[in-house]
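seq:
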Amino acid sequence: MDVVLSGECAVMENLDDRAIEQVAQFFAVFAVPTRLKILNALRDGERNVGDLASALGSGQANTSKHLGVLAQAGLIEKSTRGTSAFYRIADPRVYQLCDLVCAQIGRRLERQAEAREAFIAVARPPRGKARNRAARR
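struct:
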C-alpha cells in the first residue's frame, strides 16, 4: 500500500486504538537525535557500524543499539558481507517524511520570529522616551 505524503491522507483517521499505538511507537523512533543523525548519515548509501560511529562521534556499542531500534522499526536494512554488517535505508521515502516535519518546524519558527519582531516593534519605546526615563532615575 502506497501512502502519498502530499494531498489528503485519510488512513490514520480510520485506525483503532491499537493501530494508533503502533503509529505512536513508530514516531517515537524519530524522537532520538542520534537516530536522526544515523538516517542522515545513510543518505548517501550503506555504511558499516564503524563508519557510522565515527561519523557520529559515538561508540560502536551505542551506534549498534540505535541501529537495532531503526531496523526493528523497518527504517533500515542490514546486509552482511564477510564479518562486516552494512546498513542502508529500507525506504527512501522516510526522507520525505523528515522533510515534511522539517518544513513544518521551519514554518512554525518563521511565524514565531515574525510575531517576536512585531512585538518588539510595538513594545520598544521611542528613543527619546527611553533616554528620558533613564535620566530621571
